[in-house]
Amino acid sequence: MVKRLKLNEKTLREAEPKPDVSYQIFDTEVIGFAARVQASDARTFTIDYRHAGRQRRMTIGRWPEWSVTAARERAKELRRAIDEGQDPLAARDEWRGAPRVT
Predict the structure, then answer these.
(1) Of 27, 18, 10, whose CA–CA distance to 79 is shortest?
(2) Structural domains of the chain sorted by starting position, each given as residue range(s) with its CATH number in brackets
């Protein structure tokens, strides 16, 4: 079973990086919302979800540029879209592939 904590600034500040491995600290409030602590000591917010039988992971942003509160609110918005059947990663990839006017 995955360990879940109520994510906050103190939890992220005190999270120790592990050599040669990254790990996630999952939030208790939003399903799939997590903070990823990398071996390089970088911390990012992610949301894990499943769409059409495929496991997906979308990065929301880096800490401390994104606060825990702002990242959680964005995760709630993404979770609502996922629950409605949308795939946020596919929408982002489609937007990136759109032709540009120069």
Answers:
(1) 27
(2) 4-94 (3.30.160.390)
pTM: 0.84
Residues in contact with 23: Cβ distance below 8 Å, sequence separation at least 6, in sequence order: 36, 37
pLDDT digits (tens, 9 = 90+) for 46-60: 999 999 889 999 999
The DSSP code for 41 is S
- Residues constituting the chain: 102
* Contacts of residue 62, Cβ cutoff 8 Å, sequence gap at least 6: 42, 43, 44, 45
Residue 97 confidence (pLDDT): 66
Would you tell me how many other CB atoms lie within 10 Å of the CB of residue 51? 14
**Which helix (H) or strand (E) is 73 found in, with range?**
helix 68-83
Is residue 42 helix, strand or coil? coil
List of the chain residues with pLDDT < 70:
1-2, 92-98
C-alpha dist (Å) from residue 38 to 18, 35, 42: 7, 10, 5
